[in-house]
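Good morning C.,

I know you're traveling, so I'll keep this short. The sequence:
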Amino acid sequence: MYPQNLNHKISVAPMMGWTDRHCRYFLRLISHHVLLYTEMVTTGALIYGDQNRFLTYSDKEHPIALQLGGSNPRDLALCTHMAVDYGYDEVNLNIGCPSPRVQSGSFGACLMKEPDLVAECISEMVQVSRIPITVKTRIGVDHYDSYEFLSQFITKIAQAGCKTVILHSRKAWLYGLSPKENREIPPLCYETVYRIKQDFPQLRIVLNGGVITLEDVHAHLKQVDGVMIGRVAYNNPYLLSKVDQILYDNEHPIPTRHEIMEAFLPYIERQLKQGTKLVTVIRPTLGLFQSIPRGRIWRRSLSGIPHDSKISVVRSALEKISNTF
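The tokens, ready to paste straight into the viewer:
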């Protein structure tokens, strides 16, 4: 298990369809310290489905957190116990997703309106766990968007045993906006997150939403304990290459993009031998050469490849991009 006393200054958000095990392994090659989250996994999927499929990961992915979706305290406790057994470093409860599918399961952002139930869920999870139980939520939902409402919600979950709260700095609208629009239209309100940290100094407060540069991370860390970044880590993963040196005083040299891919090739080969399609494994690498001269050669070479493609396609793309410098 990864040391629990490490201060995770930066993390990559749980993103459905994005932060799968291949993505996490790839990102770990870029930064040793960034905290990685799984995609959200529902309690039903773990209890009635294939546990190994959802919970298995590489030891190299540490530090890694499992994000759960659910609203039944006993089910969440059972799944937390599973996470502990599998060696995760943290379990996170999703109280922030506004998608209709999530709402239909009575979890996600709609649970902000039921703080007593959330507190009961956390209490049950804490009782069976020796690893941190955290919550990712919004600063408000629908017309429940006053600072007083948010403060009371955080008070409830803190009393239940939650010591880390990840706050997406936007409110959520449960109806009328798509999940994508909920990430863009409600205005960012960083001051609300800063104020929560001031009013709850005993809690670890992590800010999420609209963070796209390491300069942004630095600015927010003056006010809060940690920062969570989202899709920018997927679209431009090399952003994380300087994290270890800048935020953790790590003296190891920053890896080049080519070194990262060379380190990823053995993993790709292992996955292909296990029957995984190449297109699935390399998807998180498509943005690696973003913002460099002729970097689109890499993306073009690997986008839309046949499902039966071999690793030679990747080696060829790497050679093409190498020849541009």
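Safe travels,
E.
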